[in-house]
Target: BURP domain-containing protein
Amino acid sequence: MAIRLSLICLLVSVTAIAADLTPERYWISALPNTPIPNSLRHLFTSDFSDEKSTNVQVGKGGVNVYTGKGKHGGGTAVNVGKGGVHVDTGKGKGTHVSVSGGKGHGGGVGVHTGKPGKRTDVGVGKGGVIVHTRHKGKPVYVGVKPGHNPFVYNYAASETQLHDDPKAALFFLEKDMVPGKAMNLRFNAEDGYDGKTAFLPRGEAETVPFGSEKFSEILNTFSVKPGSGEAEMMKKTIEECEAKRVGGEEKYCATSLESMVDFSVSKLGKDHVRAVSTEVAEKNAPMQKYRIAAAGVKKLSDDKSVVCHKQKYPFAVFYCHKAMMTSVYAVPLEGENGLRAKAVAVCHKNTSAWNPNHLAFKVLKVKPGTVPVCHFLPETHVVWFSY
Model:
């Protein structure tokens, strides 16, 4: 009886608490003066989003949570009232309900239906109620060649990467960043899926296994066949996240927007920080020749920065690293077909700790530590800096 009454009291604040826990609201609360780059805003929802809605009702009878297209649309209903807790999942399978009030359990109610990326989670605890409705399923894997991320600098370029990886063209020398300079570029980074992979809310991302020691569990969680191209791609991402640091850099793989914000703020502070990314006027623009516009290049930062690179994974994961001795530039570009791009470039002044066979050195035909090495950011990547 005591547990039931405490649950009802906690549930009264559901709408305010649940709203505060959205990734966007978390950003605004942590960085009220820092606009969210479009590259990140577009990852709040998946291309495979479900049109079903989540309704939370608080009334005298308790709290009712419905997810589904209609009252009898086969969704999930969670009712907490005088009669206790009742869960109806319609035609779905695999619902787990836990009610605890003893020591060591935290107290509260947790309801999980389905696997991450295809489920509704309702949690009731000391902090209130959290309701997450995930999309119908993870994006469809369409296949990419598993290869090292060229923005992880302790790896050597593969034999074919120099010619086959479109990101090879993103590297250039700082001295070439002048108006009129022409470069063949493509900014939309392929992540192996038919449609963008979205952020999971931190509360859900933290329940999803991540790490090489849990790889079998990860494949099972996302229904990925061992040995498949998708499995190899995911394995590569995890290996890069666990790889040793380059020189004195600090790195972190963010599995949610909230954790990316926390890492970046911990390295740069929160009072005067910006986050920017490349913006191209046309979606999925092909490789083409761009020229640096006459308007010229603008230096945004000339000290430390945190660069976050989107990884190839079933949900949004970013490889973030704090780099010292870097410059960040805004570079206006004009394509040969008239397409305009607001590109962001990062220049590394000290590359002495990079793998001597890294892709950048192969492309530019220079040696580590000799000249600043720059690269444009693909559209889904972001750089943070103080100003």
